[in-house]
Design a protein that fits this description.
Elements (H helix, E strand, L loop, with lengths): L7 E9 L5 E4 L2 E3 L2 E9 L8 E6 L6 E6 L2 H27 L8 H26 L4 E2 L11 E4 L10
Antiparallel strand pairs: 1-4, 1-8, 2-3, 5-6, 6-7
Helix pairs in contact: 1-2
């Protein structure tokens, strides 16, 4: 799922419609968003992030977002992928500590605790890196179901992600 990151970025500012998730199937909920599409012009490479204000078409709240250039977005994405890879690589030797002394409680605690922590951190960083769009503000960079969310089109089929 590659996101379409472009110089003239087509994006959608959407407002979450329901307070509680709508049940779709057993143990699964869906969130409904409604919004409008707008075109964001990214700054030139090397320029600082541009701050833009947009009004939510549903609730009327004015939101401010920082728009990063294409090069800055690539750097932000690369830093997150690098940190995710470093955490995932660090997981291997931590779990490998078990081979040193599997009967020691300290070794088992450090191995399982540290290995699990680095693995989960690496997975979360990879998740965030995959969704990095260079549009930041009001919870848009956080995974989850914020009240206002920015969506960009998928590069393969154009669906909003």
């Amino acid at each position: 799922m590659a996101l379409a990151i472009e110089r003239d970025q087509r994006t959608m500012l959407a407002h979450r419609q329901n307070f509680v998730g709508r049940s779709v199937s057993y143990g699964t909920v869906a969130w409904d968003y409604h919004g409008r599409t707008w075109l964001v012009e990214r700054p030139e490479d090397g320029e600082p992030a541009r701050h833009c204000r947009v009004e939510c078409s549903v609730c009327g709240k004015t939101l401010t977002y920082a728009v990063h250039s294409l090069a800055a977005t690539r750097r932000r994405r690369a830093r997150r992928w690098f940190a995710a890879l470093a955490c995932l690589i660090a997981t291997v030797p931590l779990f490998g500590l078990i081979a040193l002394d599997p009967s020691s409680l300290l070794v088992l605690s450090v191995a399982f605790g540290g290995g699990s922590l680095t693995f989960v951190t690496g997975w979360c960083l990879a998740f965030v890196a995959g969704g990095e769009t260079g549009l930041v503000g009001h919870g848009s960079a956080l995974p989850g179901y914020a009240k206002h969310k920015l969506f960009v089109p998928n590069a393969e089929d154009g669906r909003w992600m």
